[in-house]
Amino acid sequence: MIDHALNNNWDDRLLTGHSVIDAQHKSLFVLASYITHIEIEQASKSFAGEVLCQLADYAKDHFALEEYIMRVTKFPICAEHIVEHWDFIQRMASIIDRYERGNDGILLECRQFVSAWLENHISVSDMLLACHISGDVEFANELRQPDFLQNQKGVGDY
Ligand SMILES: [Fe+2]
Ligand SMILES: [Fe+2]
Asked: What residues contact residue 73 under an 8 Å CB cut-off, 6+ apart?
């Protein structure tokens, strides 16, 4: 069960306007915040592993929903978006693998990666999808401006 009362880094500026997508994004932020709690409370190894797997599984379900919406609404730039989802899944699989092999320090890297990835992906790629669904062409064009894209943090840095 995802506890939304937990303190997390959710920011309402990340709201896309699609109620289901937004609810799932909020849940992803809560799951990401569990990683911080694992570090602070020095939770058991099995619990920590469970949290990482839950985050990866929930993200996969969320991506499947977005990709379904892309197909039914004929989203024109779905290939790039799907590659970003795929990168996240691959990166989480690698993090889980390294954690299970005894690299406990990976939790910090995981938290930084997940927070930056979610913020960047939602604020550009998911927003473009939301604009496509709602027909907001003006905001979609704004999101595509180089100035806007340059202000996003480099996820690859983590
Ligand atoms: Fe997405
Ligand atoms: Fe998303």
From this structure: 132, 133
